[in-house]
Structures are given as C-alpha cells and as structure tokens.
Design goal:
With 223 residues, the protein is mainly alpha-helical. The protein has 2 domains: 7-104, no CATH class; 122-201. It is built from 10 helices and no strands. α5 (93-121) runs antiparallel to α6 (130-146). It is elongated, with a radius of gyration of 27 Å. The chain starts with 7 loop residues before the first helix and ends with a helix. It holds the Pfam family Retrotran_gag_2. This is Retrovirus-related Pol polyprotein from transposon TNT 1-94.
Amino acid sequence: MTTFNPLTAILTQNKLEGPNYVDWKRNLDIILIAEEYKFVLDEVCPEKPGNDATDDEQKAYQKWIKADEMARCYILASMSNVLQHQLQSMESAYDILENLKEMFGDQNRAAKQTVMKALLNTKMVEGSSIRDHVLKMMSLLNELEVLGANIDKDTQVEMILQTLPDSFQQFRLNYNMNKMDLSLAKLLNDLQSAETIIKSQAPPVALNFEEGSSSKLRGGQKK
C-alpha cells in the first residue's frame, strides 16, 4: 500500500495552468527531489540490458524506467486537463518539461532576470545581521538554480562576499589569500564567527553632550 505523501498536495493544489509556470516548476522540483526521481531529468536512460547483462545493469535500467514513469505521472497529474491532453503522449518526463519550457519559457526568463537583478543589487548594511543577509543571498541563489541558472559554488561564494560591508574586508582578504574552499553553509558559519570578532573589536560608543548644555549646568550651580 502506497503511503500518502503530504508534499504531493503542493502540486495538486497548485496545478499548472500556464501563468503559474515558475511557481509550479519550483514545487515540482521539491517533490521530485524528495521522492528521488529528479535524476531522470539530468541522466540519460541506460541502454536496455541484453540477455547477458549483469544484475547491476538490470537494476540501473529498471530504476531509471520506474523513476521516469513516476516523475511523468507527477508532472501530468499536476497540470490542467488541456495541458494533459497535449502532453500525455510524450514518452519521458524530460520531453514533457522541455515542451513546457518552450511554451512558457518567457515567464522563466523574466523571473530569472528579476531574481538576478535583486541578487546584484543586494548589499549588506554595516551593523546589520550577517546571518539574515547571507540567508537572503542563499535564497536568491537557490531561486536562480530552480529557474535554470547554473552558477558554480565558488562563484556563489564570491557573489556573497562582494555584498559585504568594509568591516568584513579582512575576511575577504583571508579568503582570497588562503584560497579557501567553502560551501555556503560553511561560509555562513565562518562569517558569523567573524562578525562576533568584529563586534568585540569595535570601539565603545561615546555619549556626546552639547558643550553649551555642559557649560550651562556648571554656570547654574550654586556656590
């Protein structure tokens, strides 16, 4: 008996109609990753095993066929009847998505441009939370990936570092000099540690009183 997956409700409640293609594709990626079917969109189907094929070859082929069948079902079940009728004859999940990309690709490009603009214009304000800033940048980078952008890990790290204020200049220098290899999660942890050090080294804020007020107090004292 198949166990109900609450994640699939995301697709059934937000079926692809056309204008919602970008959001639908994002939700589809979540489901296919969770169900471990997304690999069929990136990997070519293995050749059909012959009689002399090994068990591993047989299993690899059957795994791909089953995953593609399930991915195809998820895709078709989460779109309008009109789109189903147009696309149900296509053999693979990849073919269906490529066809949808041709149909609604303009939305994807526009959304990608909007996210990229937000990414390039985002700068951390001096004194604000490094955690909040990096998480925002990671969210934008993730959205670009969902929209089909291919930005390698090192470039993602560089993009985040370029948005930091001058107080993190030493961190950027260390990163470049030591050729540090950081994941985004490790970058966030290291930047939070750097933030703690920066705050501890910051000079105390002095309270400034107006000279006139001080003189007035002294002049007003009784002898």
